[in-house]
User: What shape does this take?
Amino acid sequence: MSRNIDGAARDVQAAINAGAHVLPANLPSNPTYRKVNPADAPIMIIGLTSDKYGPDKLYDEASTIIQQRLSQIQGVGQVIAGGGALPSVRR
Assistant: This one.
């Protein structure tokens, strides 16, 4: 608990860099981390419903369009799309 968070973040980034050679070469993006305060609470929660589109289409729209556009607003720190009903089967 007495550890400086910026120093810990540098150590995490160094560990990610050091382990990169053992990760699959075809990863869609490099591993990332973010510093988060667990005491932070959301300031906005948006729910989407539709009579025309299913949960998978709504989640796709929320995560690809809405989430990205909200993230680009100045002063916005983090946007998370959650609650999606996507299949969890891997090939």
